[in-house]
Amino acid sequence: MRYLLFAGNYKVFDGILTCLLSVAKRTKTAEPFTALILTMDVSYLRDDYTPVTEEQTRFLRGVMKKYNADNDVKTIDVSELYATEFWGCPNEGAYCSPYTLLRLFADKIPEIPDKILYLDADIMFNRDFTLLYDIDVSGVEYAAARDHYGKYILYYNYINAGVLLLNMKMIRETGAFFRARELIKSRKLLFADQSAIVRSTSKKKMLPQKFNDQKFLHKSTVVRHFSKRLFYFPYPHVDNIKQWNVEKVRSVFGYREFDDILDGLDLGSVVYPKYMTCDYIVQYVRALQNEAGSNIKTLYRILDDRVEALEFTVHEESAATGVPLSQLHLKKNLLLCCITRGDRILIPRGGDQIQVGDNVIVVTLEHGLHDLRDIVDHAAQN
């Protein structure tokens, strides 16, 4: 069994899905892999800092098992660990997000084995991931490639921590991540987790850039890391194009190498969890143009008629409106995917409320919904 490690809130779903698909599609070995996702609830810092959901995890697991029945995806909630170690620390408002700090807990989590490959969510494999995973890291704490900009601005062997082949046995022995956590708690760092790892390392292996290329995609590239990049034309600027920004990946980078993965992300074959593809659901459901009743703007049945995707227009107040979603008891087997309000698309959060004039999209296993009121479990609500 090979192991992958990710970290993030619910918004990393797009990245983890596309990354895992690139692993599954590019890998020739029959040996299964397990992906572990470190997540937490720190919504006291920001409303969208909430964990990867059970629905997302089940979906990812189901997709990966289609490639190998022994593949697995699991989430590990480290909310309490984060609160104990990092609450109120100087780097809580770290570059990117506090979720970048979670990889530093790897030595404290029993489920994490002696060898594991940590990946940022904005990673795609262009070649077989075992070319990276099977590199020998005995005698070093980790193997990593240079940071494209850091190697010029800071020093040549400054690593990019978005791809780390971790020797957890040695890290636990040397206390490398313990030292990194102490740095996080004691002083403000420019690139918090990355700088803390670099400063706490006793021995590392430098990898060729093809194992974490943050700028280019060559035939030899194993890992393309879609991190922020400086562009010079038509004027100097920084852009942050991720692999799920499909049109930009094609129009700006000119990449077609990942079409077999990115072109497969459509609702005709799968139903995505609510947090991932609000935009896709809106585009897809509206495009169907299948009017079905005065209060249902659009209805479509998918997966052999087992699942319905519906768009409701909210014409008047009801039991479903004016109530925080965290207090709204929805019927079982129903996902409230997104709310469109004017020209805005809202990813539903616990404090959001459905308002008159909204369009609401739900995906459900239940048939026969005719009105927005039908999404509420009235017995539980009362």
Low-pLDDT sequence parts = 266-294
Structural class, from secondary structure content? alpha/beta
**Mean pLDDT value:** 85
Question: Largest sheet, if any?
Answer: 7 strands, mixed
What order do the strands of the largest sheet run in, or round the barrel if closed?
3-2-1-4-7-6-8
Report the principal-axis shape.
Answer: globular
Can you walk through the features of this model?
The protein is α/β, with parallel strands linked by helices and 382 residues long. It has 2 domains: 2-225, Spore Coat Polysaccharide Biosynthesis Protein SpsA, Chain A (Alpha-Beta Complex), CATH 3.90.550.10; 278-381, Regulator of K+ conductance, C-terminal domain (Alpha-Beta Plaits, 2-Layer Sandwich), CATH 3.30.70. 25% of the residues lie in helices and 21% in strands. It has helices at residues 13-26, 54-65, 79-86, 130-133, 150-153, 168-174, 176-186, 192-200, 246-251, 259-262, 278-288, 378-381; strands at 2-7, 33-39, 72-77, 115-119, 123-125, 142-145, 163-167, 204-207, 223-225, 229-231, 237-239, 296-302, 307-313, 334-341, 344-346, 359-364. The strands form 4 sheets. Strands 3-2-1-4-7-6-8 form a 7-stranded mixed β-sheet. Strand 10 (229-231) and strand 11 (237-239) form a beta hairpin. The longest helix is centred in the N-terminal third of the chain and has 14 residues, at 13-26.
